[in-house]
Amino acid sequence: MVDTPLQNPLDIRAGRRLAMRYRLDHLIANGGMATVWLATDEQLRRPVAVKLLHRHLSDPVSVERFRGEGKLAAQLSHPNIVAIYDTFHDHGIDGIVLEYVDGTTLRDRLDTGPPLAPVEAIAIAQHVADALAEAHRRGLVHRDIKPANILLASRGAVKVTDFGIAKLLDSLDLTQPGMLVGTAKYLAPEQVTGEAVDGRGDVYALGVVLYEMLTGVAPFVGDTDAAIALARLQLPAPPVRRHRTDLHHDLEALVDRMLDRWPARRPDMADISTTLAATASTATFAPAPTRRADHRESRPRRVPLALIVLGVIVVGALALAAALVGRTDAGRGLIDKLGIGDRSPNASSVAIPLDTATLTSFDPDSDDGVENNDLLRFLRDGNVQTVWTTELYATRTFGGLKSGLGVVIDLGRSTTISELDVTGSSSGWKAAVYMADSAPDLVDSWGKAVARHGPIDGAARFTFAPTQGRTVMLWITDLGDAARVRIGELSLRAPA
């Protein structure tokens, strides 16, 4: 075969041989950074995929990022990650040789078919989570998880590809300054704001992918990429149940956790894989009890770009103002009054151990009277990242189904208490604290609340006159904008 590269080194077409062994057969894909060709490795006589950097991206940063893909991804060996075979530089052309996957992309599958069945979506997400768990274990973050980078092989395998903008956690960030890398629809909030990105950004992106697989739409839409990316800074993702009601509540809860705006509240990939496996093993995907839908939230969140940009400016201004105010005596006094400053324990009180206490949920308006009792252990495990959570409701007022929901702490004996602290919680919710000698079956039987607080944002301290009783109840009356409350830790204190 006659080779033409010497006459025109930048002529890339079918039949061209690169690096003296890879014959380009036909174009597979054309992305923003590179083209991908089906090629033949003439030495090993096997099909391969060859990724070639676009010639207009020959600046040092783009070339270094592209070459880095091969080096980084070559460190990974996993059945759900596309293997890297070789890299080359030939007459000004940079290329990466990859495992060829005969099949389609998840993007094509979503664009040409209906939303996936839960079992299929779970299987795909679990394979991706397993692949990313291995990458994260090696200190590598993908940073561009999206359906176009998830390959569905014709033989059933699922593989993650395109680590082109991945980076080692401790390495130089080639995307700085001012380069927003990744597809807007799948960017985590911290990527949008330019904060440090770690594996939790991949968790968020996979959450968006799982949401889209299950519903057929992304959680946020907009007129521009900027509007889509910035919307997640202003609003929580609408619940999956807005679009389909045949999902197991554990799957719905997982998606909600993955899309949490706060990275610390998201599960890690190992936890995601375990939860998906457990959900897939259930016999049916029974819907949770029917709740009234809030039709105002039935569509993906679309926010005008001007409003979003204004919101970002305001948030930034408030953050700067808070930092400056906190440097003055008057400012610190204001912060203390608002309850947004230091929440260290009161020196005039002592902690009450909860290791022997009994924790139960209190849901008098439901059939079984409890809600997520199996998660209550997380309220006293010393880790604010493990949480007890309510179910996801249609509105912040429980979808009109109930007046509230409580957590009851039974200390086993009468105790004088003056303080209940909440840490690691969601934002915008409201609650009251009640005390009694026993746990009544009705809310009204608890008597008068000893304290009320809200809206709560992350942490709250309920301080009240020393009150004696055996049981303490945190009674949630408003779920906040997310229509769900998460709490990391509860603690009680007594007068010193």
UniProtKB/TrEMBL annotation:
<feature type="transmembrane region" description="Helical">
    <location>
        <begin position="305"/>
        <end position="325"/>
    </location>
</feature>
<feature type="domain" description="Protein kinase">
    <location>
        <begin position="22"/>
        <end position="285"/>
    </location>
</feature>
<dbReference type="Pfam" id="PF00069">
    <property type="entry name" value="Pkinase"/>
</dbReference>
<keyword id="KW-0808">Transferase</keyword>
<keyword id="KW-0472">Membrane</keyword>
<keyword id="KW-0812">Transmembrane</keyword>
<dbReference type="GO" id="GO:0004674">
    <property type="term" value="F:protein serine/threonine kinase activity"/>
</dbReference>
<keyword id="KW-0418">Kinase</keyword>
<dbReference type="InterPro" id="IPR000719">
    <property type="entry name" value="Prot_kinase_dom"/>
</dbReference>
<dbReference type="InterPro" id="IPR011009">
    <property type="entry name" value="Kinase-like_dom_sf"/>
</dbReference>
<keyword id="KW-0547">Nucleotide-binding</keyword>
<protein>
    <submittedName>
        <fullName>Unannotated protein</fullName>
    </submittedName>
</protein>
<keyword id="KW-1133">Transmembrane helix</keyword>
<keyword id="KW-0067">ATP-binding</keyword>
<dbReference type="InterPro" id="IPR008271">
    <property type="entry name" value="Ser/Thr_kinase_AS"/>
</dbReference>
<dbReference type="GO" id="GO:0005524">
    <property type="term" value="F:ATP binding"/>
</dbReference>
<keyword id="KW-0723">Serine/threonine-protein kinase</keyword>
